[in-house]
Please model this.
Amino acid sequence: MCAIRIPAMAVPSLASKPLLRRALLLHSFLSPASRFSSLRAFPYLPPLTSSGLGMCHLAQAIKGDTDNLLKGVADKGVIEEVKHILEMAKRASLRREVLHTDFLTPPVLKESMLQLEKLADVRAVAQGGYPEAERCRLSVGHPEALTNDPDIVAALSISGNFGFQTCSHGDVLGSVLGTGIVRDKLGDIMLQGEKGAHILIVPELVDFLTSSLDKVGNVPVTCKKIPLLALEYEPPRTKTFKTVEASLRIDSIASAGFKISRSKLVDLIRQALFHFCTICFVNSLFIYLFLSNEGSYGKGRLKIGEVKTTKKGKFAVELIRYL
Model:
């Protein structure tokens, strides 16, 4: 369905004319014959001309842009999910609104961020409830609309006496999904030993789960909402070191961080086994480098920390390698 283009001189401010906005919405649902008769009742609306078809051409251009971006997706197994996110992001940007995904798996998140970075009029923020979350939700929108970090992740504490029957990740996951919640609405699960577990979930399902989840395995449990700051999780093991490089090229940084030669790294890039992306995690900018687990080089994740310029004009880069 094509939108109507309204000259700026004819309508100075749509926001100041609620009646006109309602008329526009009504117009989009009318039959073609009824549309032109309805236009005569509103002198602010000019007759529909070929210029009113501009938004249709724009929609076709957006589809073409999405197809071009999808060619850069290395993991073809997630291409449909990435396509959906790209279309959502462009729709949110055009409408100056903010839209949110469900919890995404790391491969989908990585590939989506790689492609979203190429869109100048889209900002994306990933949140998983804590800095090292694997499953995250993406908020996408125009930079002027997405100015704050949306509140889209909630934390729950599942408590019970697991002293004689320790719960596993699968036990908690199976019990939560047994209430009828789909996996995409659930984030990371952090086991708390004999105390139970902490889980991340979409806020709109908090009340449902707290009233529905009463057992994990054979152990009776209580479920309550807790602040994100109260989450208890084991920080990942990391190794921090510094390197001095002549440039901030990705191949230079990754070569030093993963301890492999640049020529081998170039081969990995050509084989689509190496990727990088920039992710905004609640007021922090992380640049992650990923080395796939295919091949003989293993897999890894590298975060670029502080960057300083030396007296000789080179760059002292702090690298955090995840072990």
Observations:
- The first helix runs from residue 18 to 29.
- Residues 1-64, 277-286, 293-298 have pLDDT under 50 and may be disordered.
- Residues 156 and 225 are 4 Å apart (CA to CA).
